[in-house]
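User: Please fill in residues for this 303-position structure.
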């Protein structure tokens, strides 16, 4: 009997996207005599953020994208951070700007996001990019939802009329994910911490997006045998009963759900690699647009 692999392989899809990125960054260098560039700002020393930033910079360099890492101490004032962003906005040869979130509590994330020039906003978090996405005329689409949609479209050929249920209503993931799935003709439900009968909503989903930020909450009582599960959570948890001290898990209890679900993104190796690949895509796009050069969106057929 054939053993069915239900995993959605994020590393495979990320490689597929990055394979198209490298020749474009080469072409950009040839045309404009410089590499596309991405400035990444990290404030403070949140251990998870440091790892994410390190990975973003590594993948940028591997793909011929110049990275500018700016590490600021936790006590950096909001004013100082806004000034740094303002000067990066004015640097002609900086194509993309990303400020890693979360920020220390004394800094307003919204003010910081508003400060990034919409043309350099490779995260797609600026209100202009957010609004454009909701109007169905996107420019920069947030990387995690974009990566998820790419995988969903490759796994589910026909999304018309499918029921998509999203757990979580953040501006970074839940809301843009809802907008993308709505534009793809899904019937979308956004649920959150105050939703009544959460399980009943989830059980009806053809596509279930877990972005609630709580480790391994979603088990097989939230899922049906047709559900495709996209697990956006990345949580480090202690595992005293296992050999390792701690490990990364998603918002979905993978072990409990795997036997029932149709398909599932594992953690790690699911959504994470696609987020970074989409960041590279958005950076290349920002670079060509910065040079007033036409850019054929690589992911357009999937968004
Ligand atoms: N923190 C968690 N996810 C993200 C992301 O996609 N972009 C930024 N800037 N910060 C994050």
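Assistant: Residues filled in for all 303 positions:
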């Amino acid at each position: 009997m054939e053993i069915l692999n239900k995993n959605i392989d994020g590393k495979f899809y990320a490689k597929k996207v990055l394979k198209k990125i490298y020749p474009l960054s080469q072409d950009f260098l040839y045309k404009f005599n410089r590499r596309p560039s991405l400035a990444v700002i990290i404030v403070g020393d949140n251990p998870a953020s440091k790892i994410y930033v390190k990975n973003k910079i590594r993948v940028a360099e591997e793909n011929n994208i110049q990275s500018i890492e700016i590490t600021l101490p936790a006590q950096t004032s909001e004013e100082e951070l806004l000034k740094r962003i303002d000067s990066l906005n004015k640097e002609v040869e900086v194509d993309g700007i990303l400020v890693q979130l979360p920020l220390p509590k004394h800094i307003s994330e919204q003010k910081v996001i508003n400060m990034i020039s919409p043309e350099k906003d490779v995260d797609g978090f600026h209100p202009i990019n957010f609004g454009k996405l909701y109007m169905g005329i996107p420019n920069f689409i947030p990387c995690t939802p974009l990566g998820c949609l790419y995988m969903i479209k490759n796994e589910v050929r026909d999304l018309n009329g499918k029921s998509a249920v999203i757990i979580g209503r953040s501006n970074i993931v839940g809301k843009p994910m809802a907008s993308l799935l709505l534009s793809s003709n899904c019937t979308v439900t956004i649920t959150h911490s105050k939703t009544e009968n959460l399980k009943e909503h989830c059980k009806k989903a053809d596509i279930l997006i877990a972005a609630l930020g709580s480790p391994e909450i979603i088990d097989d009582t939230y899922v049906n045998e047709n559900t495709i599960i996209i697990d956006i959570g990345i949580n480090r948890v202690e595992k005293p009963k296992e050999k390792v001290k701690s490990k990364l898990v998603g918002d979905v209890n993978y072990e409990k759900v795997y036997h029932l679900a149709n398909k599932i993104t594992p953690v790690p190796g699911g959504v994470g690699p696609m987020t970074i690949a989409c960041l590279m895509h958005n950076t290349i796009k920002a670079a060509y647009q910065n040079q007033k050069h036409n850019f054929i969106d690589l992911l357009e057929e999937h968004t």
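For context: The chain has a mean pLDDT of 96.
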